[in-house]
Amino acid sequence: MASTSDFKNGLCIEHNNDLYTIVQFQHVKPGKGPAFVRTKLKSLNTGKVIENTFNAGVKIKLARIEHRPHQYLYKDDLGYHFMHQETFEQTSVPEDMIPNADLFKDGMEVSLIVHADTETIISVELSPFVELKITYTEPGIKGDTSSSNSLKPATVETGATIYVPLFINVDDVIKVDTRDRSYSERVKK
Residue 106 above 80 pLDDT? Predict the structure, then answer.
């Protein structure tokens, strides 16, 4: 058990029969009344972010969450298949538990998020940035824009569509931010 004084960003707690990670917190001590902690909590099961207020000193049950290194192998009717990088044990995960599944490339290293007490898989997490090759995009025409931050759709090797700047062409390798699916930079060859 822990209390609200132990709060920090990224801490996993059990709250209302669900697992949450603390995204943001603020200790508030008003002039009148008792102190409290205002938090933003992200559900590990649904991904939904909620706001919650805890009274100062309240006991909170911590959840033991482990990030286990795996390698993405393939996808079939059962879901996505991963191999643990130390034990070589294979695990399949349904598609609805995987955010940004269309950014997975064969052999890519991912992290399976597991609730250690029950040994249940909560989610699959990609590294913050992945490098993907452009397979199709319309050519950008010089002078075709009225602003400096115009974007065009591009299809990457995994089949996902990412919006990229006009100077990106077919066969370019780009770095994609997996947190918001945005273009980050072009990778030098």
Answer: yes
